[in-house]
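Working notes for the structural subgroup meeting. M.R. asked for a predicted model of this chain before we commit to crystallization trials. I am recording the input and output together here so anyone reviewing the notebook later can reproduce the run.

Input as submitted:
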Amino acid sequence: METRRVRLDQTESLGPDGVVRVLAEKGVGEFPGLSDLVHPLPGDPADAAEQFFAVSPATGRVLGFCSLSRLDEERRRIQVDVIVDEKANPAGLALETTVLTVDRAFKAWPVDEVRFWSVGARAEGLRNNPTMVTEEKPPASDVARPPGLEDASHFVIQRDRWERFGAKFVRRLSMKPKDA
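Returned structure, recorded in C-alpha coordinate form:
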Protein backbone atom coordinates (compact mmCIF):
# COMPACT_ATOMS: atom_id res chain seq x y z
CA MET A 1 0.00 0.00 0.00
CA GLU A 2 2.43 2.56 -1.25
CA THR A 3 3.01 5.05 -4.03
CA ARG A 4 6.18 7.05 -4.57
CA ARG A 5 5.03 9.72 -2.11
CA VAL A 6 2.61 7.97 0.28
CA ARG A 7 2.60 4.77 2.31
CA LEU A 8 -0.34 3.56 4.40
CA ASP A 9 0.79 2.25 7.80
CA GLN A 10 -1.95 0.41 9.66
CA THR A 11 -2.81 1.65 13.14
CA GLU A 12 -5.24 0.91 15.93
CA SER A 13 -8.83 2.08 15.51
CA LEU A 14 -9.39 5.65 16.62
CA GLY A 15 -12.51 7.78 16.95
CA PRO A 16 -12.62 11.40 15.78
CA ASP A 17 -11.14 12.89 18.97
CA GLY A 18 -8.40 10.27 19.03
CA VAL A 19 -7.49 11.00 15.41
CA VAL A 20 -7.08 14.74 16.07
CA ARG A 21 -5.06 14.06 19.23
CA VAL A 22 -2.73 11.46 17.68
CA LEU A 23 -2.20 13.51 14.52
CA ALA A 24 -1.18 16.49 16.69
CA GLU A 25 1.22 14.24 18.62
CA LYS A 26 2.73 13.16 15.29
CA GLY A 27 3.20 16.74 14.08
CA VAL A 28 0.02 17.25 12.03
CA GLY A 29 -1.65 20.22 13.69
CA GLU A 30 -5.13 21.58 13.17
CA PHE A 31 -5.82 23.15 9.79
CA PRO A 32 -8.79 24.80 8.02
CA GLY A 33 -11.35 22.15 7.12
CA LEU A 34 -10.05 19.56 9.60
CA SER A 35 -13.37 19.32 11.42
CA ASP A 36 -15.19 18.66 8.10
CA LEU A 37 -12.79 15.79 7.41
CA VAL A 38 -13.03 14.34 10.93
CA HIS A 39 -16.84 14.53 11.35
CA PRO A 40 -17.63 11.57 9.05
CA LEU A 41 -15.35 9.21 11.03
CA PRO A 42 -17.27 6.67 13.08
CA GLY A 43 -17.80 7.73 16.68
CA ASP A 44 -17.23 4.16 17.79
CA PRO A 45 -13.76 2.91 16.78
CA ALA A 46 -15.26 -0.59 16.56
CA ASP A 47 -17.05 0.56 13.37
CA ALA A 48 -13.66 0.95 11.67
CA ALA A 49 -12.63 -1.89 9.35
CA GLU A 50 -9.06 -0.58 8.97
CA GLN A 51 -7.28 2.66 9.73
CA PHE A 52 -3.91 3.97 8.61
CA PHE A 53 -1.49 6.80 8.96
CA ALA A 54 -0.48 8.28 5.62
CA VAL A 55 3.32 8.43 5.82
CA SER A 56 6.06 9.75 3.55
CA PRO A 57 8.12 6.71 2.46
CA ALA A 58 11.17 8.97 2.02
CA THR A 59 11.12 10.61 5.45
CA GLY A 60 8.73 8.63 7.66
CA ARG A 61 6.85 11.86 8.40
CA VAL A 62 3.13 11.42 9.12
CA LEU A 63 1.12 13.25 6.46
CA GLY A 64 -2.41 12.36 7.58
CA PHE A 65 -4.89 9.68 8.51
CA CYS A 66 -7.10 7.32 6.48
CA SER A 67 -10.06 5.22 7.55
CA LEU A 68 -12.13 2.42 6.06
CA SER A 69 -15.31 2.08 8.09
CA ARG A 70 -18.98 1.18 8.19
CA LEU A 71 -18.39 -1.97 6.16
CA ASP A 72 -21.73 -3.33 4.94
CA GLU A 73 -21.09 -6.75 3.45
CA GLU A 74 -24.76 -7.25 2.60
CA ARG A 75 -24.92 -4.06 0.52
CA ARG A 76 -21.26 -4.50 -0.48
CA ARG A 77 -20.07 -1.00 0.45
CA ILE A 78 -17.59 0.73 2.73
CA GLN A 79 -16.93 4.32 3.78
CA VAL A 80 -13.55 5.93 3.11
CA ASP A 81 -12.25 9.00 4.95
CA VAL A 82 -8.93 10.72 4.30
CA ILE A 83 -7.54 13.50 6.47
CA VAL A 84 -4.62 15.34 4.86
CA ASP A 85 -3.85 19.06 5.05
CA GLU A 86 -3.75 19.99 1.36
CA LYS A 87 -1.98 23.31 1.99
CA ALA A 88 0.81 21.87 4.18
CA ASN A 89 1.78 19.14 1.71
CA PRO A 90 2.96 19.01 -1.90
CA ALA A 91 0.33 19.52 -4.59
CA GLY A 92 -1.75 16.45 -5.26
CA LEU A 93 -0.72 14.60 -2.10
CA ALA A 94 -4.25 14.55 -0.65
CA LEU A 95 -5.59 13.13 -3.91
CA GLU A 96 -2.79 10.56 -4.06
CA THR A 97 -3.54 9.49 -0.48
CA THR A 98 -7.23 9.23 -1.31
CA VAL A 99 -6.77 7.06 -4.39
CA LEU A 100 -4.38 4.78 -2.48
CA THR A 101 -6.97 4.39 0.30
CA VAL A 102 -9.80 3.71 -2.17
CA ASP A 103 -7.60 1.14 -3.91
CA ARG A 104 -7.01 -0.56 -0.56
CA ALA A 105 -10.77 -0.67 0.07
CA PHE A 106 -11.47 -2.42 -3.22
CA LYS A 107 -8.54 -4.83 -2.89
CA ALA A 108 -9.08 -5.81 0.74
CA TRP A 109 -12.85 -5.88 1.18
CA PRO A 110 -15.76 -7.57 -0.65
CA VAL A 111 -17.36 -4.29 -1.75
CA ASP A 112 -18.75 -2.87 -4.97
CA GLU A 113 -18.99 0.71 -3.69
CA VAL A 114 -16.76 3.08 -1.79
CA ARG A 115 -18.67 5.95 -0.21
CA PHE A 116 -17.56 9.24 1.33
CA TRP A 117 -18.74 12.70 2.37
CA SER A 118 -17.36 16.00 1.12
CA VAL A 119 -18.12 19.72 1.53
CA GLY A 120 -17.34 23.05 -0.06
CA ALA A 121 -14.71 23.36 -2.76
CA ARG A 122 -13.76 19.68 -2.47
CA ALA A 123 -17.35 18.61 -3.18
CA GLU A 124 -17.64 21.08 -6.06
CA GLY A 125 -14.43 19.70 -7.60
CA LEU A 126 -15.79 16.17 -7.39
CA ARG A 127 -19.06 17.21 -9.04
CA ASN A 128 -17.13 18.81 -11.90
CA ASN A 129 -15.04 15.68 -12.59
CA PRO A 130 -17.44 12.74 -12.60
CA THR A 131 -15.21 10.20 -14.36
CA MET A 132 -14.92 7.90 -11.34
CA VAL A 133 -16.95 9.63 -8.69
CA THR A 134 -20.70 10.25 -8.72
CA GLU A 135 -22.75 12.24 -6.26
CA GLU A 136 -25.55 10.30 -4.65
CA LYS A 137 -28.32 12.85 -4.34
CA PRO A 138 -30.00 12.33 -1.99
CA PRO A 139 -27.92 9.75 -0.12
CA ALA A 140 -29.47 6.31 0.27
CA SER A 141 -32.06 6.31 3.05
CA ASP A 142 -29.94 3.94 5.16
CA VAL A 143 -26.84 6.18 4.99
CA ALA A 144 -26.67 8.40 8.07
CA ARG A 145 -25.50 11.96 7.56
CA PRO A 146 -22.69 12.74 10.03
CA PRO A 147 -23.66 15.27 12.71
CA GLY A 148 -22.29 18.70 11.92
CA LEU A 149 -22.21 18.08 8.17
CA GLU A 150 -25.73 19.11 7.21
CA ASP A 151 -24.43 20.67 3.97
CA ALA A 152 -22.19 17.75 3.03
CA SER A 153 -22.55 15.90 -0.24
CA HIS A 154 -22.37 12.13 -0.46
CA PHE A 155 -20.25 10.54 -3.20
CA VAL A 156 -19.87 6.99 -4.49
CA ILE A 157 -17.17 5.21 -6.48
CA GLN A 158 -18.33 2.00 -8.17
CA ARG A 159 -15.89 -0.91 -8.45
CA ASP A 160 -16.23 -1.17 -12.25
CA ARG A 161 -15.35 2.51 -12.71
CA TRP A 162 -12.49 2.16 -10.23
CA GLU A 163 -11.04 -0.82 -12.08
CA ARG A 164 -11.35 1.02 -15.38
CA PHE A 165 -9.78 4.32 -14.28
CA GLY A 166 -8.59 4.45 -10.66
CA ALA A 167 -6.57 1.25 -10.39
CA LYS A 168 -4.50 2.30 -13.42
CA PHE A 169 -3.87 5.68 -11.79
CA VAL A 170 -2.60 4.01 -8.60
CA ARG A 171 -0.29 1.72 -10.62
CA ARG A 172 1.16 4.75 -12.36
CA LEU A 173 1.64 6.60 -9.07
CA SER A 174 3.44 3.55 -7.69
CA MET A 175 5.96 3.26 -10.52
CA LYS A 176 9.52 4.41 -10.07
CA PRO A 177 10.14 7.69 -11.96
CA LYS A 178 12.11 5.99 -14.76
CA ASP A 179 9.19 3.56 -15.33
CA ALA A 180 6.46 6.21 -15.33
